[in-house]
Amino acid sequence: QVQLVESGGGLVQPGGSLRLSCAASGIIFSIYAMGWYRQAPGKQRELVAAITSGGSTNYADSAKGRFTISRDNAKNTVYLQMNSLKPEDTAVYYCNAILQKGGIRIDYWGQGTQVTVSS
User: Fold this and answer.
1) Which pLDDT does position 102 carry in this prediction?
2) What does the pLDDT read at residue 47?
3) Where would I find the beta strands (DSSP E) of 9-76?
4) For the chain, what is the mean pLDDT?
5) Cα(32)–Cα(30) distance, integer angstroms
6) FRET pair for 46, CA 20 to 30 Å: which of 1, 35, 59, 112?
């Protein structure tokens, strides 16, 4: 059974930091690309950051310079370090694992963790 379990969300003041973690089980973690998405109330889910199996990273413009995605294949975990948080970062953050090979796409989602940026 595949599970992606996010943790690390919470309430933080503007300018503060949080580190999200996503622990994966039931997959060969090292071959999956991993991503963090977020969804604010009334908005579509959007990509925040992604990291390939080889470690290449990609960020949404809103995340560049403030957020860092990383992975630890030994721990089957992907992280999102978020600094200089803004109220507009408030959303539910979801972890995603994706594998694309030979025309086949497999992806899994976590249950989400709430991040609230407010004074």
Assistant:
1) 85
2) 98
3) 10-12, 18-25, 33-39, 46-51, 57-59, 67-72
4) 97
5) 6
6) 1
Q: Are strands 67-72 and 77-82 parallel, antiparallel or unpaired?
A: antiparallel
Q: What does the alpha-carbon distance between residue 44 and residue 4 come to, in Å, rounded to a whole number?
A: 21
Q: Is the distance from CB of 105 to CB of 98 less than 8 angstroms?
A: yes
pLDDT tens for each residue of 64-75: 999 999 999 999
Whole-number Å distance between alpha carbons of 93 and 110? 9
What gap in Å lies between CA 37 and CA 108, rounded to an integer?
12
CA distances from 12 to 5, 39, 96 (A): 21, 17, 23
- CB–CB of 36/18 below 8 Å? no
**Is residue 87 classed as helix, strand or coil in its secondary structure?**
helix
- The owner of tokens 């071959």 is 31
Say if residues 94 and 112 touch (Cβ distance below 8 Å). yes
